[in-house]
Amino acid sequence: MSTQRWILAAAILCSLGVATTEAADAPRGPSGIDLAGIDHSIKPGDDFDGYANENWRKTAVIPADRSSTGVFLQVFEKAEKRNAELIKTIAASKAPAGTNQRKIADYYAAFMDMASIEKRGLAPLQPQLKAIAAIDSKEALAAELGSELRADVDPINATHFSTEHLFGLFVTQGLEDPSRSVPYLLQGGLGMPNRDYYLDTDKDMAGFRAKYQAYIATQLKNAGIADADDKAKAVFDLETKIAKAQESLVDSEDVHKANNPWSLADFAGKAPGLDWAAYFKAAGLDSQKQIVAWQPAAITAESALVGNEPLETWKAFLTFHTINHVANLLPKAYADASFEFYGHTLQGTPTQSERWKLALGAVNRDLGDAVGQLYVKQYFPASSKAEVQRMVSNILAAFDSRVDQLTWMTPATKAKAKAKIATTHVGVGYPETWRNYADLTIKADDPVGNRLRAEVHEYQHQKAKLGALVDCNEWWMTPQTVNAVNLPLQNALNFPAAILEAPFFDPKADPAANYGSIGAVIGHEISHSFDNTGAEFDASGKLANWWTPADQAHFKAATQKLVTQYNAYEALPGLHINGQQTLGENIADVSGLTVAYLAYHKSLSGKPARVIDGLTGDQRFFLAFAQSWREKTRDAAMRAQVISDGHAPGNFRAQTVRNLDAWYDAFSPQPGEKLYLAPDDRVRIW
């Protein structure tokens, strides 16, 4: 199944950007640093990522079923193994019907029963396929499109949503009234990761387009649909038109362009073509007074396509995406074709993951809190939560002190920044309240139905929040997720239990390693409240300019220096990082590392750091940071990330150190070395 970064999520769910991969656990000395991974033949001032990680990279092997390998998913593997053990225990317990444990066991069993999946064929999708075949008018088409509207958050990466539906729903605080939740409508309708895959003139992209059209035809042929090649071309051509209608990632991240509350009547006038009354009624949104059009031009253009493109083309589009959406829950021919395109072609992954790994991911997606409750009870001690909470407090205090020390910021803006720090909601490990799955039906013999019912359950959960008072403590990730997130509208942070593991966090480790690794993660997420998006929201989560003109001008000038810095990085021959697209994450990396460093020194209480493994405290701090971002990635996956993601690849994130004066003191890079920046050229934001 294809996923795409929905832009609203990119703007208000600022995560670390973690991929799903595997890595071997490198041995670490008392310092908490992988000493063997360091390549002393590389000068730190030329390539700090290479210095910290190249010896590891020389021998690291990307598993055949993965697109990359690195430290992040060394930790992911630990969580994955634990989840497998939990589900094995649950399955053996024969829990009573209706309990969360039984739902988990039945969901997993249904996903794993390949013989039954093969036997059923397309039967589980026949109700949907028949409904599509029966569409005989544009009103009926609108009703079908509306009935498929979803709010499908992927808990592995909270910035991603299902993209195969024409539009997507996101429910969160209002931009102007953050006390209540409102609906946002977002662009969608693509089967490839984003618009660039359809429009970019690069030869690799042209190859992807040809293979995608062939893939559409393959799935239609698997389903026994007549004229599959012609219909595949029509579907591809329609998606190309949708891609041309969509806004870019950079444009969509501008929240000021997104603040477009439309009445339901406005949709008919501003976006003609789609029968909006039928659409919203089928979507269960017809009682809403307003819906925010996040990308108004795209919504208008996509609506026009509904009105102008042939009905049969839309029916072919819906048929393909109905199949594609659950391809890994269909017979082997469908699942293999899906992997061949999405896994092998787009990500470069040679081999499909074992079925049990896919099943674990699916259970965690659709019953995430049910698994999470068991996970934290078994694997996340109260002592770890308390220690991380202390680190968060230290880093928030360091950020507060840093604001006091800024010479460029006026007292009025400082006061607003400090108020925002003081009111930040921080969740560590797991939520205080858990999702209720009592009304979600899970059957041990219905994997497709389980998936579709879970999507509807999530959609209903999100809709139930509309108009209600906002819960600032709401979590957007499950405890077993290896990631972290900042929620600017909630002025909140989530640090799931699964990322609070070695080597990111080890309660027995040297503070330099903990602060350089998980401390920088914490600092990163805090800093998102003050990046180019977070800085647009005040302490209450309201979209409000709390900067003086002079302060805002300084901030934007500093961030543009960071854009230029990242634009110069070349991920693949001819493929450069987009500094504007990755700006928010790069600001958070620089600022987060800065405040984590200050918090580390505060934790020493004025005492000098010990030399361990021949490394000073500052050297350990910066090496821990760089080794946290070590990765080895297949070219296709690297290309996909650069084009589609707001996060720079890890090897470039490790070079963030070049902007901190303390790194120069620790490793003595010299003028003329590739990373060296003169003091005035170093980016200093917070």
Describe it for me?
It is a single chain. The protein has two domains: 34-59 and 391-421 and 512-681, 3-Layer(aba) Sandwich (Collagenase (Catalytic Domain)), CATH 3.40.390; 97-366, Neutral endopeptidase , domain2 (Neutral endopeptidase, domain 2). It has 686 residues and is α+β, with helices and mostly antiparallel strands. The chain has 29 helices and 14 strands. The longest helix is centred in the middle third of the chain and has 24 residues, at 382-405.
Total count of helical runs of at least 4 residues: 29
Strand order of the largest sheet: 2-10-11-9
Task: Quickly give the CATH architecture of the largest domain.
Answer: Orthogonal Bundle
Strand content: 5-15%
Tell me the distance between the termini: 40 Å
**Sequence stretches where pLDDT stays below 50 over 5 or more residues:** 1-13, 19-24, 153-162
The biggest beta sheet reads: 4 strands, mixed
Given this structure, which CATH class of the largest domain is correct?
A: Mainly Alpha
Radius of gyration: 25 Å
Report the count of strand segments: 14
Content-based structural category:
alpha+beta
Fraction in helix: 40-55%
Oligomer: single chain
